[in-house]
Write a structure and sequence with these properties.
There is one protein chain. This protein is of the alpha/beta class. The chain is built from 4 helices and 8 strands. The strands form 3 sheets. The protein has a 3-stranded antiparallel sheet with strand order 4-3-7. The chain has one domain.
């Protein structure tokens, strides 16, 4: 499934360039490689700010998270690109490759760096996110807001349709976004 990798690695792609790419639905809102500038810097926007520009222009683009693992020894070393730093949780009808890819094409997923959601509901006035209790203690409030913001970005781009979604089977399929939304209720 094609996607734009680490747009802020060496400041490779501006938000305008990213939004102009044709036939692309996915980009990395979070990349776990320590040399990727997810949060911006030096006058360049972070990936969240770039996503705001793209969605505000009317372009549909979903954010994914990856760990970009290159090193599998010395696990936990923040200076190395290790596994387990970012992934995608997909709502698919079955645990088959086709069902997972189809769900991602429809935007039925969220990016995470540790939070697992039980569900979310979006109305025209609010958004409620239900987080699995066992992830709260290990990831902290900041990560909860990251997952909620990622879902809100998705719902802003295209409101979810409950009747069209399959009965869910969750799957962690790959290797997040930052948050500051006042309209998010975390349970």
């Amino acid at each position: 499934m094609p996607h734009i990798n680490h747009p802020n690695f060496n400041w490779s792609i501006t938000p305008e360039q990213l939004g102009a790419v044709k036939n692309n639905k996915l980009f990395e809102i979070y990349n776990g490689h320590p040399m990727v500038n997810n949060f911006g810097g030096g006058g360049m926007p972070g990936t969240e700010a770039a996503w705001d520009v793209i969605l505000s222009s009317g372009t549909l683009l979903y954010g994914i998270a990856v760990d970009d693992a290159h090193h599998f020894k010395d696990l936990g070393n923040p200076k190395l690109a290790g596994p387990g730093r970012g992934w995608v949780m997909v709502r698919a009808a079955t645990l088959s490759a086709r069902a997972i890819l189809d769900a991602m094409e429809r935007g039925n997923f969220y990016a995470s760096t540790g939070v697992e959601l039980d569900g979310y509901e979006v109305t025209t006035r609010s958004m409620t996110v239900t987080v699995k209790r066992n992830t709260f203690a290990s990831t902290g409030f900041s990560s909860l807001r990251k997952a909620a913001w990622c879902c809100m970005k998705r719902s802003t781009a295209r409101p979810p349709t409950r009747s069209a979604e399959p009965k869910a089977t969750s799957a962690r399929v790959s290797s997040t976004a930052t948050a500051r939304s006042p309209g998010v209720n975390l349970r």
